[in-house]
Design brief:
It is built from 15 helices and no strands. The two termini are 32 Å apart. Keywords: Cell membrane, Membrane, Transmembrane, Transmembrane helix, Transport.
């Protein structure tokens, strides 16, 4: 049986410690030498020209988890257009159009990732052990949360109860995904990756912030579910408090570690400088989530007569508890918003300082998908400012929210156009976790192992027959 040569393999990356059959003698040596050694070759540039199936598989292979940052940035832009502080119908229509685009992007990315991990052998493990690429798995639940929120803002408000329950179901799917990514990546970080103080980066926040975003999305779902099922809305808010607790405190711990690292070794390299905006995520979205949960608790008690603590029969007591929780949530939200303001100022200062040294920092030649990291963190800072401006009736916060929202929209237009250009000229697809390695489809891998087993067994039989042949001679 002929073995597929590395040059003809349709794609790239096999983890350097991929499992092999447990054999002894020359068989094991043959397998370890011929099937697991990393390659120094780059991906085959002709893979995308060998037909539609090969092109799709090539694109899927080179669609890393970081591409979900595009989904996140598009989603938060749709929300800000739809909820802009100084609203107009045309802005809402634009928000709905971007929302539809975001659903398409999410669907394409999800199909690509399903193909990526089902077609290619060992790729999931390779990504999980990569110090940077694995962290971007947290982008998937965050991107889906923007879709859940827009379903509430657009579909529930337009078509009512059935869409409210659909949003709730979609939110629970996202909860499971975000919790698995958060808890799982912390475990992998501790047990499977080789991190160093130098590799500590704001990207560590990505898996954790997913639960913060999902908790905030739960508050949005509860507010739109309350008119149809107030009891279920209360359960959703209570779950959101718990999920919020799995995200914000550990995110603050990681931020503390990164402050220590940045103080000793300085800011990230220019190519990764956009990551300095990532601490805005847990602070801004944490503030939006906790304030929205407080608003939801108070609305349930005053509008629907549903106490946040089941069993309370006295309406006045339920409202007092709701007022206390609302006040606590507002205070926590203001503190987190202040922390977000600090990080926004520092991140902008670092970016401007580097741009002053290299004015081509935002030029086409320096573009990477990592620049989408600016969009979502600033966007959630804007959403927290919008909700605080509404609750505090603050014209100043409303102006700040409008400025931040406009900044996000302009940045979305810039990175969106750069991404489209990179996609057209073929420079977009780049998965660093598989660079310099050979990867095989599962069928090619099976054929390769079978061939190596046959060859090794033949070699072992020949070695065993050699002494007998020598004696006869």
């Amino acid at each position: 049986m002929a073995s597929p040569s590395p040059a003809s393999a349709r794609t790239i990356a096999l983890p350097s410690n991929a499992p092999t059959p447990v054999l002894s003698g020359p068989v094991t040596a043959a397998l370890s030498d011929s099937t697991i050694a990393p390659s120094t070759r780059s991906p085959d540039p002709k893979a995308a020209r060998r037909g539609p199936v090969a092109a799709v598989l090539h694109a899927a292979l080179h669609t890393p988890p970081a591409f979900y940052a595009i989904n996140m940035g598009t989603g938060i832009t749709s929300i800000l257009l739809h909820r802009y502080p100084y609203q107009g119908h045309w802005l809402q229509y634009l928000g709905i159009a971007v929302f539809v685009l975001n659903v398409i992007i999410f669907a394409v990315l999800t199909v690509s990732n399903v193909l990526r991990y089902t077609v290619y052998h060992g790729l999931f493990r390779t990504v999980a052990k990569h110090n940077v690429a694995s962290m971007f798995w947290g982008c998937m639940p965050m991107g889906l949360s923007t879709i859940v929120n827009m379903v509430c803002f657009v579909c529930v408000e337009a078509w009512g109860e059935n869409w409210a329950y659909a949003a709730l179901g979609l939110w629970w799917v996202n909860v499971v995904l975000a919790v698995l990514v958060n808890f799982g990546m912390i475990f992998v970080l501790f047990t499977r990756q080789c991190q160093t103080p130098a590799s500590l980066a704001p990207t560590w926040l990505l898996p954790i912030v997913g639960t913060v975003v999902v908790a905030a999305s739960g508050a949005v779902v509860a507010q739109h579910l309350a008119p149809f099922n107030a009891g279920l809305a209360r359960s959703t808010i209570l779950c959101s408090f718990v999920i919020w607790g799995t995200g914000v405190p550990p995110a603050l711990m990681v931020i503390t570690l990164w402050i220590y690292r940045a103080a000793l070794q300085g800011p990230p390299a220019p190519a990764a400088l956009a990551s300095v905006f990532l601490p805005l995520g847990p602070c801004g979205q944490g503030a939006f989530g906790i304030v929205s949960m407080g608003v939801g608790v108070r609305t349930l008690a005053y509008t629907y007569g549903v106490p946040v603590i089941p069993g309370l029969t006295e309406a006045e007591g339920a409202q007092r508890i709701a007022d206390a929780m609302y006040a606590g949530c507002m205070l926590t939200g203001l503190v987190l918003w202040g922390l977000a303001l600090l990080w926004y100022t520092i991140a902008v200062a670092l970016f401007v300082d580097q741009w002053r040294k290299d004015w081509r920092l935002l030029g086409p030649g320096k573009f990477s998908v990592g620049l989408w990291a600016l969009t979502f963190p600033i966007g959630v800072f804007a959403t927290s400012t919008i909700v605080l401006a509404a609750e505090l009736r603050s014209p100043a916060l409303k102006v700040i929210a409008a400025f931040l929202s406009a900044q996000v929209i302009l940045h979305f237009l810039y990175v969106g156009s750069m991404t489209l250009w990179a996609w057209i000229n073929g420079a977009l697809y780049n998965a660093p976790e598989i660079a310099g390695k050979d990867v095989y489809t599962r069928s090619d891998w099976s054929r390769r192992v079978s061939h190596d087993l046959e060859a090794a067994c033949e070699a072992e039989a020949a070695a065993a027959a050699a002494p007998a042949a020598a004696r006869k001679a």
